[in-house]
Structure formats: structure tokens, C-alpha cells
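Hello, quick one for you while I still have it in my head. A protein chain has come my way and I'm curious about its shape. I'm sending you its amino acid sequence along with the C-alpha cells. I'd be grateful if you could look everything over and explain what you see. Here's the protein in full, and shout if anything looks odd to you:
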Amino acid sequence: MQNSKLQLKIQKFLSKAVPLWMVLLIVLNSTLIMGIIQYYLMKQELDKNIRQLAKTTQTPQQLAQILKQEVVPQKGYVTSLKWKDLGKRLVETGAIDKKKYEEIFTQNVDGGDHMKYMDGNWEENIAINEQNARFMVNTFWALGLVNKSKVLDEGPMRGEGIETGNMASTAGWTLGSKPAMELYSSSPTIPLTAEQQELVKKIAQNVFRPCCGNSTYFPDCNHGMAALGYIEWAIYNGLSEDQIYKDLLAFNSFWFPQNYVEMAVYFDKQNIKWKDLDPKLALSASYSSAQGVQRIKQAIQSVPGVSGSGGGCGV
């Protein structure tokens, strides 16, 4: 009898409607409890990640060395262009004197037989690395200087008040069999159409180098003239604009390794990896001019542990 009365009371209680305020209270309490649980779970995960980050975070020196292998990899950078008979053409025009070249770039001096490219027709891909960076800047300097070019004939190099023959890219060239100004824009070593010449100009205006504030359109030093020569050879062989910018960024990186490793650090701090960086942006005045690299250096307070050759403006 007692059990029957108890069951009846329970049934009556359950049959009554639960007040709305009680439902809301239950829901709110449940949400609060779940929120607290999630907070502690997230905190545990965050603490775990922080501990893991502390184990893997690199010192400035370590970070610089890691990024250096991305910017100027030990294996070098290989372009899709072939040497073909480029060296032979440069010798034939007098832009390169083989004997003078041999005195600097003899076999095995830096681990490579560079002089072979001065004869014959080579189907090897043009590549740049830490060892041959000097050879590359000189060879394309010769091309940029001698090749008939609207950039040289109509650009800032022939501007009012400019003494063309006194520039580092002209007066500094001593490895030809003719005087530099006799070589200057003198030979259609690689003949370009009017349309191709305009494309050369367009790209040259967008490419800067850390040694000065001028674009390749004003190639008053060896690196500017070398970049001009590479642009001409690339366009002559049908490379796309995007690929030319990518190649030139690699060339600049090997010619100015300190500056471009610092640039990699600068963008890394903005969560932009070197491989994802737009080469055209990197080569712009904002980042690759003398003013641009100085701004980057100030922003990151320099990077220790990086060294390399190729930054000088002489042969």
C-alpha cells in the first residue's frame, strides 16, 4: 500500500509541466559546465604547444642558417635555360677576352670548369651557386654590356648629364678584348625584336639590387648590367615573365646573400615563407633597393652568422 501511494505521487509530479525558468537554468548550467571543461582542455593543449615550441625555437644564428639554406641552397639554383653558344658569342664580339678570363676563372679554382662555356654549344642548364656566383655576374655583365639594347641606347644610361663611360658597369669592365665603350650596345649578340626589347625594358624597370637605388633599367653597376643580360637571354629563349623574376631573385640572392637572408627573416616574421614569397615583390624598390634592404635591416636588427661573396661591383 505504501509503495502504491509513493508511485502515485511520483506519477503526479512527473505529469506536471516543468516551469520554463527551471528548463533555462538547467540549459545554462549545462552550457557553463561544458564551457569550463572546454577551457581547461584548450589550456592544456596550449600549454603543450608552448612547451613544444620552446623545444624547437631556434636562436637567431640557427634561424639564419636554416633560412640561408632556403635562400642560397648549397646545391645551388638551376634555371631552365641552356648555355648553348652564349659564351662563344661573347668571345667573338670581343665582350670577353678568353685569356683574361682564364686568369680569373681557370679550371678547378672554385670547383668548376667555367672556361668550357667559352667554346662550342652546350646543352647544360645555366645554374648559379656560391662557388660560381662571380663567374655568373661577370658573364652576364659582358652580355648586358655588348648586346644591342634600347635600354642602353634610350634609357637613363644615356640621360642628360650622365657620363656613360664613367659608370661602374662600363669603366669597370676590363675583361673584354675591346674598350668598354666600344663594346657598349654594339652588337646584336642575341637579336631581339622590337616587342622583345619592350618586354626587356618592362621587366628591367621592376628589378632592383641592394648595392644602389637604381633599377636594372639604369644598369650603372655590374649587377644591374648582369641582370639586364640575363633578362635579354631569357626573353630571347622564350621564358615567361614570372619565371624571369624567379630566376633573377635567385641570382640576386647568390650575389647578395646577407641581404636576402635578412629579407627571408623579415618575411618569416610575417609568416610568409621564402618559397611562397612573390619574386616580383621581393625584387621591387621597396625590398631590393639599397633603401629597401636598409629598411629591412633596421626592422630585424641584422642577422648574425651569414656571409657570402658576390656583393662587390668590380670584376
Notes: The radius of gyration is 32 Å. The first strand starts at residue 77 and ends at 84. The chain has two domains: 2-56, 67-300.
